[in-house]
């Protein structure tokens, strides 16, 4: 499966929640898309519920199946609760941290900024969105890119105290990845245990 580039509201409606951020369409049409969206709901199987949760996590973080599976296997080999470790790995991706720091309004926009070489890690340009950050690393906007309107617009009015595992320095337009987040601090509505159950079959 290639990366989804279709209407995001359609995906948000499928899951019944704004997984890509505030969504006007979802507030008006809070039912699944398609001609049967408003019809009688049939009971979803246990497998269907688990698969839906995995798809929601993949769409939320913009990760494809192979990458997601690799991250899961890495989480399963790590110490700690597999589901929580998986979410921590997803949160430590460079594109996600650029989004969490408020440099980009969405994860898709963050991925584009990274790919287009606008982001530096510890002073060096990194153009791999899936790059895994380590605690203590500094993520900043490249000197040439500091005047980009899209970055200024994203940073304007952004609440930088929202996420306790990152800190932001406005004067240098750089942020620090302090530590892996605790599960309670990750705001995404993902039931990671269902993903673990799905892959453990």
From TrEMBL:
UniProt region (Disordered), positions on chain: 23-46
Gene this chain is encoded by: rpsD
Domain spans labelled RNA-binding S4: 92-156
Keywords: Ribonucleoprotein, Ribosomal protein, RNA-binding, rRNA-binding
CDD domains: S4
Protein name (database record): Small ribosomal subunit protein uS4
UniProt keyword Acetylation, yes or no: no
Domain Small ribosomal subunit protein uS4 N-terminal: 3-91
Organism of origin: Dysgonomonas capnocytophagoides
Lyase as UniProt keyword: no
Stored Pfam families: Ribosomal_S4, S4
GO terms for MF: rRNA binding; structural constituent of ribosome
Function of the molecule: With S5 and S12 plays an important role in translational accuracy.
GO terms classed as biological process: ribosomal small subunit biogenesis; translation
The organism's place on the tree of life at top rank: Bacteria
A single cellular component GO annotation: small ribosomal subunit
SMART domains reported for this sequence: Ribosomal_S4, S4
Entry similarity comment: Belongs to the universal ribosomal protein uS4 family.
Subunit structure: Part of the 30S ribosomal subunit. Contacts protein S5. The interaction surface between S4 and S5 is involved in control of translational fidelity.
InterPro entries named in the record: Ribosomal_uS4, Ribosomal_uS4_bac-type, Ribosomal_uS4_CS, Ribosomal_uS4_N, S4_RNA-bd, S4_RNA-bd_sf
Entry-linked HAMAP family: Ribosomal_uS4_B
């Amino acid at each position: 499966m290639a990366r989804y580039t279709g209407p995001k509201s359609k995906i948000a409606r499928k899951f019944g929640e704004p997984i890509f951020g505030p969504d006007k369409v979802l507030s008006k049409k809070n039912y699944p898309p398609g001609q049967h969206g408003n019809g009688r709901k049939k009971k979803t199987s246990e497998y269907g519920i688990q698969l839906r949760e995995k798809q929601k996590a993949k769409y939320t973080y913009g990760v494809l199946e192979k990458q997601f599976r690799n991250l899961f296997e890495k989480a399963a080999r790590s110490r700690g609760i597999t589901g929580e470790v998986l979410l921590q790995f997803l949160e430590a991706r460079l594109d996600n941290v650029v989004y969490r720091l408020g440099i980009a309004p969405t994860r898709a926009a963050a991925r584009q900024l990274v790919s287009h070489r606008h982001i530096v890690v510890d002073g060096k340009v990194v153009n791999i969105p899936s790059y895994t950050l380590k605690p203590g690393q500094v993520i900043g906007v490249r000197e040439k890119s500091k005047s980009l309107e899209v970055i200024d617009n994203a940073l304007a009015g952004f609440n930088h105290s929202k996420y306790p595992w990152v800190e932001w320095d406005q004067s240098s337009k750089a942020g620090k990845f302090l530590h892996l987040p605790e599960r309670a601090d990750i705001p995404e509505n993902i039931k990671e245990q269902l993903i673990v159950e799905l892959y453990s079959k």
